[in-house]
Amino acid sequence: MYRTAWRFAVGVEVSVEGLTKSFGSQKIWQDVTLTLPAGEVSALLGPSGTGKSVFLKSLIGLLRPEQGSIVIDGTDILQCTSKELYEIRQMFGVLFQDGALFGSMNLYDNVAFPLREHTKKSESDIRKIVMEKLELNGLIGAENKLPGEISGGMRKRAGLARALVLDPEIILVDEPDSGLDPVRTTYLSQLLIDINAQIDATILIVTHNINLARTVPDNLGMLFRKQLVMFGPREVLLTSEEPVVKQFLNGSKIGPIGMSEEKDDSQMAAELAMKEAGHHDGSQEVSGVVPQMQATPGMPVRQAVGRRQARVRSILHTLPPEAQQPILESLGDDQATQVIPAYNDSGAESSSWSHG
Questions:
Q1: Residue 336 banded pLDDT, cuts 50, 70, 90
Q2: Structurally, how many domains does the chain consist of?
Q3: Which of 1, 206, 256, 263 has the fewest other C-beta atoms within 10 Å?
Q4: Which residues, 6 or more positions from 336, have their beta carbon under 8 angstroms from its beta carbon?
Q5: Is residue 170 predicted with pLDDT exceeding 50?
């Protein structure tokens, strides 16, 4: 058996500040500021066409924003030399939407490719690493198959195996549910959680899959109308009354997101009136903090959970009172029946909370 050794070094923090990206005269998003906490799983959400994949490609230096900074392990990749960018990229593993496998290579050679390209390891060492990653992704026995001979789900897992062979500290995952049915998407989500439990890597998932967004990541961010609407721990966004976030996470027609652009006030009022009259739009509104997917039994304790929950407790008093009780219940705190007032700088009670 080829067992991957568990390592517990925390992944690398990624700090983005004031990031703005355009293609010609078309602005994709502007002034995006967020921090991906080290060793945690984060997800970036948003309707189709909001530039989620553009953001992911910017993080690895495949696209270059016009303004702002992307600091990784103390280096701003928008200001560094080509040599420094090459070294920073060695910290990344990337799973693209289609797996991005070489069609003429079997799965073994696809997974081995980064090791042969970027290291001087012997073929025996390469074989040990490749077989470890293939086993981790449930692909033992398929190593001699070509990408065209396997299912979409297997191609995704092969792409993930290849993304892991250089032991990345940061893993970027672009639309993991693309081309997969809900069951295979859940299996792949479980695999990402288990990988985080084993190697404590920093993971960013770009998605518009509602179920994945609710149950998998530690942190959620939302892009809409060229802006980052919010970014923070899952507990905060899942209890948020921010209209765009609430609409998206419930898959509802009621809210600012329309078919092609932001709705005007009259359309929103008409849809709200229909809802109040009993018209059901097919969405399933979920209240409170839904349980998070856990690592498979036998895996190490996922350290990211404890770090995130400690951060949530530290900011709980700043959140709206109506959000505090469900968050406390999700944390399993004894004071879950209590509501902690939020106070402003003057000491007066306040229910406001700032968005990103």
A1: very low
A2: 2
A3: 1
A4: 325, 328, 329
A5: yes
Dist. CA 288–CA 241, nearest whole Å? 11
What's the CATH number where 62 sits?
Answer: 3.40.50.300
CA distances from 180 to 75, 110, 308 (A): 36, 21, 29
Q: What is the mean pLDDT of the segment spanning 241-256?
A: 86
Angle at alpha carbon of residue 331, lines to 187 and 186, rounded to 5°: 10
- Per DSSP bridges, beta strands 41-45 and 26-36 are unpaired
In a domain, 226, yes or no: yes
Inter-axis angle of helices 123-136 and 107-118, nearest 10: 130
Percent of the chain with pLDDT over 90: 63
Give the domain range for residue 248: 243-276
Amino acid at 40: E
Count of positions (residues) in the chain: 356
Contact between 220 and 240 under an 8 Å Cβ cutoff? The reply is no
* Residue 180 confidence (pLDDT): 80
Question: Would you state the pLDDT for residue 259?
Answer: 53
Q: Are residues 192 and 268 in the same domain?
A: no
What is the band of 163 on the pLDDT scale with cuts at 50, 70, 90? very high
User: 């001087």: which residue's tokens?
Assistant: 120
Measured CA to CA, the distance from residue 139 to residue 156 in angstroms comes to 11
Q: Is 228 helix (H, G, I), strand (E, B) or coil?
A: strand
Q: What's the whole-model pTM score?
A: 0.83
Judge whether 295 lies within some domain: no
What 8-state DSSP symbol labels residue 232? E
Q: What are the b/e assignments for 192-207, b being 16+ CB within 10 Å? A: bbbbbbbbbbbbbbbb
